[in-house]
Design a protein that fits this description.
Helix content is 31%, strand content 13%. Strand 9 and strand 10 form a beta hairpin. The chain contains nine helices and eleven strands. The chain is an alpha/beta fold. The strands form four sheets. It has a four-stranded parallel β-sheet. The chain has helices at residues 42-66, 131-138, 154-161, 163-171, 187-200, 202-205, 237-243, 278-294, 306-313, and strands at residues 21-22, 27-29, 76-78, 83-86, 105-108, 121-126, 179-183, 216-219, 265-266, 271-272, 299-304.
């Protein structure tokens, strides 16, 4: 299956998402021993505890017994949030770590350290049923169906249309200019995104609303499915522009041959000779996280694939077709 591949290669997990965390070293003790200064680093506090343990001997143990055996190790609390320096570029490219300097824009990295107005919401959606999905689901053969860059089936298009109410409800509170729609460059995802977009913004697209209120659309190659079958082999940007002329601007930043090992995997010549390593998928997931953080939009509606979203979310379950 182009999306239901459950490859668990025996490789080390790729843990480098490119996040550079700058942590304040100013700390304040919540409870402390009397007569000590109020500012200390974790190293200072640990050293003082060790000194007490070594120098206090029996007296130290006696003091603890008198205090009811309570652990008096000083508690350390951060006085500033962890910050993550990020460039302001919005292009779907790898993060240049050399640009991460003190003058870069600083944004708290995790939601518990971010103000509510700075947090991003990412709605992740799997594409509708593809031709590859349908053949693989109903066939008794274990062979690859040999369907390259599979399009949606009629059922898949109906599933995409049915996203209207759910997405409208989720986006109802978003202000104009706050929402970005983004999709994988594989055909089934582009079709799902365009169908859902047309349903959610039917009024505006038919002239009943201001065109300026329509959300921006982007294509991000980092989101492509783990290339493990013929259905995951992409097609050149020029062919995608021809098939989806309304997406021309969104496809401008996409490389002509953007998928894994295009010299060995080619949909035009129907060639599939190189399976993408799991570690490379994990690397792309990290690059997508970086890309999301660099976008100025607060809400992102992302159309992708089951294996990619499983890796992205850390879930043990896979999304069903058009599940949000």
């Amino acid at each position: 299956d182009d999306d239901d591949d459950d490859d668990d290669d025996d490789e080390d997990n790729w843990n480098d998402d490119g996040f550079i965390i700058h942590c304040s070293q100013n700390y304040e003790r919540c409870r402390d021993y009397p007569g000590e200064d109020l500012e200390a680093t974790p190293e200072d506090a640990s050293q003082r505890v060790r000194e007490r343990e070594v120098g206090g001997g029996e007296d130290c143990g006696h003091q603890l017994q008198q205090q009811g055996g309570a652990d008096r190790t000083p508690e350390i609390s951060r006085t500033r949030p962890i910050e993550c320096s990020l460039p302001s570029s919005s292009s779907c490219q790898a993060l240049d770590l050399s640009n991460l300097t003190g003058s870069a824009v600083k944004t708290p990295c995790y939601s518990i350290f971010r103000g509510a107005s700075d947090r991003k919401t990412v709605h992740i959606i799997r594409h509708g049923e593809s031709v590859y999905n349908a053949i693989d689901r109903y066939s008794r053969s274990l062979e690859d169906p040999f369907v390259f860059d599979a399009p949606l089936t009629d059922l898949g298009r109906q599933q995409a249309k049915a996203l209207r109410d759910k997405l409208s409800a989720k986006l109802g509170g978003a202000a104009e200019g706050e929402v970005l729609w983004v999709t994988s460059p594989l055909t089934r995802c582009i079709q799902t995104m365009l169908t859902a977009y047309g349903q959610v913004f039917r009024k505006e697209l038919n002239g009943g609303g201001a065109p300026s209120s329509l959300p921006a659309i982007k294509v991000c190659s980092h989101m492509a499915e783990h290339l493990a079958t013929t259905g995951d082999v992409g097609r050149p940007r020029s062919l995608l522009v021809k098939d989806f002329p309304k997406m021309r601007e969104a496809l401008d930043d996409l490389e002509e041959r953007w998928w894994w090992q295009p010299s060995k995997n080619d949909a035009i010549s129907m060639k599939f000779d190189s399976r993408e390593p799991k570690k490379n998928l994990q690397k792309r997931v990290g690059l997508f996280r970086q890309w999301v953080l660099r976008q100025p939009h607060r809400v992102i509606v992302a159309f992708g694939h089951s294996t990619f979203w499983k890796e992205f979310s850390g879930s043990t379950e896979r999304l069903r077709n058009c599940e949000v």
